[in-house]
Amino acid sequence: MDWTSSPASALHGELAVPGDKSISHRAIMFAALAEGTSRVDGFLEGEDTRATAAIFARLGVRIETPSASRRVVHGVGLHGLAAPDGALDCGNAGTGMRLLAGLLAGQRFDSVLSGDASLSKRPMRRVIEPLAAMGARIESEPGGLPPLRIRGGSDLRGIDYELPVASAQVKSAVLLAGLYAHGETAVREAHPTRDYTERMLAAFGWPIRFEPGRAQLSGGHRLRATDVVVPADFSSAAFFLVAASLVPGSHVLLRAVGLNPRRTGLLDALRLMGADIRELDAREQGGERVADLEVRHANLHGIEVPVALVPDMIDEFPALFVAAAAAKGTTTIRGAAELRVKESDRIAVMARGLRELGIAVDEAPDGAVIHGGRLRGGEVDSAGDHRCAMSFVVAGVIAAAPVRILDCANVATSFPDFTGLARGSGLDVAPAAPR
Ligand code: S3P
């Protein structure tokens, strides 16, 4: 599925982007393992999170959908999951697969986790190794690739683990296995990552100690049902933050966006570039800080992205590449090698696409140098990566002529109805004419 994104005039109006993907995955998982019935409001109706819900249905958990973006989960308790009748398909979702690997390692039954072509190329050794150190038995394809075959009935023991890469998914996999382990499980991280697993375990009543850089829990407790309100996904808001910043005359309000400090590195980076973004009516919602974000057009200039911000904006680099392409001067990104093992190699995909549109980009193994300039129209390949596809839509809006974007179907993994919302705000994006 290809899209065309054409130059547009200003963005206007109020936008409610869909629920947070990271929180939606975890809400289903913890509610499923809790005792009692939990309601999830603001659930992301994306393919990734629906795949996680479908997996728990296959594991014997009754999940109702009273209306869109709502789920009622009838938890079965920590030991109440049933053996599935075949492989569990995580779709495109690294979060789904890595967190489930930890959770399923603690079950009495065997299971297999599979995924789509992109997920089947993503590194799983980073979870297999710590889980094996806890006593889990997990086999993969050569090179640590999915599918993962997880043996049940393992006797897990807690570990003290220092993350070799900044990854909330790995941290969460270890903590989830820790629920089933004897003794204490601790995870230490040199670069703190999103702490949704820690916060949500606490909200579901599991005793856990955590602070930036460290989380510790012991096995053998219970999760108690609780209701979860999912804030709007900052990563989905990011495309509109960048588009409204770049298009003259724009003025947009993004409603109730989750502003967990481990997610908002792009806000800091855009402000360093000169963006005009205000947080209005900051409040707490379901244990997370949320605010309405008011964005006005501003003249952006290039920056050296502070390396300390990288883990806090790891999903927002495709959007930042586009902001940098349109900014005055040069933007340097370093310390972001993780971008090469996301849903695509995001450094390569964004560099190639922007070059097609006339922007000079020098690639480095762990980042890029982007020389801001005037974007022209053309054809770019998103490589099936949802965030690259949406970022190229933003590029089309500020280009001199329409941009054709190849392979956009996976936008539905994280942002169903992106095009509807985008059009409502004034963007000109539509299915491309067949060739
Ligand atoms: C996520 C963690 C990040 C992020 C992903 C969601 C999570 O991945 O890129 O989109 O929900 O824990 P890593 O843990 O691989 O950095």
UniProtKB/TrEMBL annotation:
Top-level EC class: transferase
Active-site residues from the entry: 315
Its localization reads:
Cytoplasm
Give the family, as the similarity comment puts it.
Belongs to the EPSP synthase family.
InterPro entries given for it? Enolpyruvate_Tfrase_dom, Enolpyruvate_Tfrase_sf, EPSP_synthase, EPSP_synthase_CS, RNA3'P_cycl/enolpyr_Trfase_a/b
Q: What is its EC number?
A: 2.5.1.19
User: What catalytic activity is recorded?
Assistant: 3-phosphoshikimate + phosphoenolpyruvate = 5-O-(1-carboxyvinyl)-3-phosphoshikimate + phosphate
Looking up Gene3D superfamilies in the UniProt record yields:
Enolpyruvate transferase domain (3.65.10.10)
Spell out the molecular function terms from Gene Ontology: 3-phosphoshikimate 1-carboxyvinyltransferase activity
Q: Which CDD domains match?
A: EPSP_synthase
Q: Which SUPFAM superfamilies does the entry mention? A: EPT/RTPC-like
Per its record, how is this protein called by name? 3-phosphoshikimate 1-carboxyvinyltransferase
Q: Where does phosphoenolpyruvate bind?
A: 21, 94, 122, 169, 346, 387
What Pfam families does this protein map onto?
Answer: EPSP_synthase (PF00275)
Cite the binding residues for 3-phosphoshikimate.
Answer: 21-22, 26, 167, 169, 315, 342
Record bears the keyword Iron? no
Q: Which PROSITE patterns match?
A: EPSP_SYNTHASE_1 (PS00104), EPSP_SYNTHASE_2 (PS00885)
Tell me the ranges covered by the Enolpyruvate transferase domain, including all copies: 8-419
The function of this protein is: Catalyzes the transfer of the enolpyruvyl moiety of phosphoenolpyruvate (PEP) to the 5-hydroxyl of shikimate-3-phosphate (S3P) to produce enolpyruvyl shikimate-3-phosphate and inorganic phosphate.
Identify the metabolic or biological route this protein is part of. Answer: Metabolic intermediate biosynthesis; chorismate biosynthesis; chorismate from D-erythrose 4-phosphate and phosphoenolpyruvate: step 6/7
Q: How does it assemble?
A: Monomer.
Sorted UniProt keywords: Amino-acid biosynthesis, Aromatic amino acid biosynthesis, Cytoplasm, Transferase
